[in-house]
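Researcher: Let's walk through a ligand-bound prediction step by step. First, I give you the protein sequence. Second, the SMILES string for zinc ion. Third, you return the three-dimensional complex as structure tokens. Ready?
Model: Ready.
Researcher: Here are steps one and two:
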Amino acid sequence: MKGIKRELNNTIKHVAQRENFATDAYTLGYLQALLDVKAALDGKSPAAGMWMKSWDKEISALKKIINDSDNIVFFGGAGVSTESGIPDFRSVDGLYNQEYDYPPEVILSSSFFREKTAEFYKFYRNKMIIDGIKPNKAHHALAKLEADGKLRAVITQNIDGLHQAAGSKNVLELHGSVARNFCTVCRKPHSLDTILASKVPHCECGGLVKPDVVLYEERLNQSLLQQAADYISRADVVIIGGTSLSVYPAAGLIYYYTGDKLVMINNSETTFDERVNLMIRTSIGKALEKAVL
Ligand SMILES: [Zn+2]
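Model: Step three, the predicted complex:
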């Protein structure tokens, strides 16, 4: 018995440490099952087994909501992109600290960009520009909903341009995009190649080139925020995915929704859970694939 428990504990530790386990519903289901066995061996009743659930009933409810509406708005965060292999730098802070002298929040700030531009770009090129990334099922499902005349807008906190790569047209990028860059002096647009070509990219006019992404210490684009608020307040259905809604002011946008079809597809709990009408606690890619594709 003691040997079984020790082996079980080692397995749980191993699974929990496995890379990406937080975004993989199957692994989490496995982990939950192991924890249930452990609880049973300890003489306790098993945990709720949330990750063992198939969510089929909820996916059917989502299908119906989608079928009945032509005014859906999607609001997404980092979790939408992690399934394409883009790390959420907020959750892997420790990893970067081993390599860089500052945490990502400091490096990706406006003052750091001005004062230590070369170091900013070293981090930016290494961690923010990821080669060969492709849209996943979530991006494709949302592009299809827009093409089918059901979805009015994608509002995203991501800066990777994957929604457009999947074919989405109306994408409100609250935090900007790595695909756009401009000269801080003459405002001329520059391609990503300019950013990749030199340690500190400059324009022909001599001005410093800056990515069109919202850095820490910078304000979000106010007219874009207003547009997002308008879409959400007029929406029949709002689907939130891959975000813990912890980043303000973007997260405050959800308060503009007054309807009764607020759908949340998220792997973890959020402070908004009580307001949600339909909760699907699984991977956003898998849920949208089942409901849409
Ligand atoms: Zn210039």
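Researcher: And what stands out?
Model: Residues 183, 185-186, 188, 203, 205, 207 surround zinc ion (CB under 6 Å). The longest helix spans residues 25-41.
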